[in-house]
Specification:
About 75% of the residues lie in helices and about 0% in strands. It is mainly alpha-helical.
Length: about 260
């Protein structure tokens, strides 16, 4: 009975909205799949600051030579090895210990950090497009339905009664309602996902700053206040889609803050 009622409801929606309603339902399904994929992928591969990484950074701040990048990778569990921030921190620490070119190290760290966010961009963009496109499709269906209603009234030479005209208008407005029903939740989801990505971006930025700018050993607090160290020169890094997508207000990008 439930399956029969669902089939009748879908058939009625298709009959009322026509092809536009079918497109809206397809967009709702695509958006739901994109959101579920984003949640599943994010739970496994989203950069996250774990207790192990915090401990490694604390040890790095005390004595950079005491942290072994290979040991940090091998000590991680199966779930922790899916965390791209773990490899970003380990690779950056290893590059600093090998005293590689500082500008190249910062550029590589910024590039790897942006790549860690790239898998989240496509699902987010799909959800944003659906949220923007659904109301327009609903309006298109309403306009087409109104055209059909007035065309039928013109065919009867104005003898159509109010019941027939109101029925046509009701059918036309159903697509607008359906478009808003699809757009509102996806607009809220897109805003929430973008907020989460900004938080992840900020966490990665602060982590890279802590790794790339460890305290100088042998310098006391008084010396550092009297003779502050000059900041390292900033190296420009080509802007990526991720950098433009998630700018940090009041805070520099990964590449610049790491400098």
């Amino acid at each position: 009975m439930a399956d029969l009622a669902s089939s009748e409801t879908l058939a009625r929606l298709f009959e009322m909205g026509g092809p536009v309603m079918m497109v809206l339902i397809a967009l709702a399904i695509i958006g739901t799949v994109a959101f579920l994929y984003l949640m599943l992928f994010g739970s496994l591969f989203a950069p996250r600051l774990t207790r192990q990484i915090r401990k490694a950074i604390a040890d790095w701040q005390r004595d950079p030579g005491s942290v072994q990048a290979d040991h940090l990778r091998q000590q991680a569990g199966r779930y922790a090895r899916l965390n791209p921030l773990l490899y970003l921190v380990a690779n950056t620490m290893e590059a600093c210990q090998k005293q590689l070119d500082s500008s190249q190290t910062r550029e590589t760290a910024a590039h790897d950090a942006q790549q860690a966010l790239e898998p989240f961009e496509a699902p987010l963009k799909i959800i944003e497009v659906i949220a923007a496109l659904a109301p327009l499709l609903g309006l298109l269906g309403t306009v087409m339905g109104m055209m059909d209603a007035f065309s039928a009234m013109a065919a009867t030479e104005g003898r159509a009664n109010a019941a027939q005209l109101s029925g046509g208008i009701y059918t036309a407005l159903s697509t607008t309602a359906a478009g808003l029903v699809v757009a509102i939740p996806f607009a809220a989801l897109a805003a929430w996902i973008e907020f989460r990505l900004r938080r992840i971006h900020k966490t990665m930025n602060n982590t890279l700053v802590a790794v790339l700018n460890p305290p100088i050993s042998g310098v006391t607090a008084t010396d550092s206040e009297t003779h502050p160290a000059e900041p390292a020169p900033l190296e420009p890094v080509p802007a990526t889609d991720s950098a433009r997508e998630y700018p940090m207000r009041g805070e520099q990008s990964l590449a610049h803050a790491a400098g």
